[in-house]
Design a protein that fits this description.
The protein contains four helices and eight strands. The termini are far apart. The protein is globular and about 45 Å long. Helices cover 25% and strands 33% of the residues. With 157 residues, it is an alpha+beta fold. It has a single domain, classed as Peptide deformylase (Peptide Deformylase). It has a five-stranded antiparallel β-sheet, with helices on both faces. A three-stranded antiparallel β-sheet has the order 4-5-8. The structure holds nickel (II) ion (NI). The site of nickel (II) ion has 5 residues, from helix 2.
C-alpha cells in the first residue's frame, strides 16, 4: 500500500469526466488500497480516483462509520435537502456552504464485482454526492453558495 499524491484544484485532471471500470483487476484493488492509505493520511472522509490522478469511476468514503468502496457508483434516488459545510482534500484550507439532498441512494459495485445499493443520510449523503461529483469533474466550490471567510475558518479551529 502507498500514499499517493493528492492533486489540487488547479490541476486539469479534476475537471475531466472519469471512465467506468469495465473489469476489476489487481491494479483496481491496489488503487483502492492506496486510496484508503491516502485518505487516512490526509484525515479525509472521502476520496475519488481523479484526486490521485486516475480518471476512473472509483470513490471511497468513510465518515467514521466504516469504509465504503464504490466502483462505478450512480445516484439512483435522492430525498430532501440539507445545507452545510463542505471541504475537499483537493481544495486545501477552504470550507464552503453547499446544498445537497438529505438522503441519497447509490448503486455501485464492490471490489469483488458484486453490485450493491447503499442509502446515506446527512453527512454520508453529502459525502456520496461530493465524491461522485468528482467523477464528472465537478468540485464542491462550483456548487457552494458561499465560502467561509478566514475569520469564520479561525472560529472553527
Ligand atoms: Ni473532494
Amino acid at each position: 500500500m502507498a500514499i499517493l499524491n493528492i492533486v489540487t484544484s488547479e490541476d486539469e485532471v479534476l475537471r475531466k469526466k472519469c471512465r467506468p471500470v469495465d473489469k476489476i483487476t489487481p491494479r483496481t484493488l491496489t488503487l483502492l488500497d492506496d486510496m484508503l492509505d491516502t485518505m487516512r493520511a490526509a484525515n479525509g472522509v472521502g476520496l475519488a480516483a481523479p484526486q490521485v490522478g486516475i480518471l476512473r469511476r472509483i470513490v471511497i468514503v468513510d465518515i467514521g462509520e466504516g469504509l465504503i468502496e464504490m466502483i462505478n457508483p450512480e445516484i439512483i434516488a435522492t430525498e430532501g435537502e440539507q445545507e452545510g459545510e463542505e471541504g475537499c482534500l483537493s481544495v486545501p484550507d477552504e470550507v464552503g456552504i453547499v446544498k445537497r439532498p438529505n438522503i441519497v441512494t447509490v448503486q455501485a459495485t464492490d471490489r469483488n464485482g458484486e453490485p450493491f445499493t447503499i442509502r446515506g443520510e446527512g453527512l454520508l449523503a453529502r459525502a456520496f454526492c461530493h465524491e461522485i461529483d468528482h467523477l464528472d469533474g465537478i468540485l464542491y466550490i462550483d456548487k457552494a453558495s458561499r465560502m467561509l471567510t478566514p475569520e469564520e475558518m479561525e472560529d472553527e479551529e
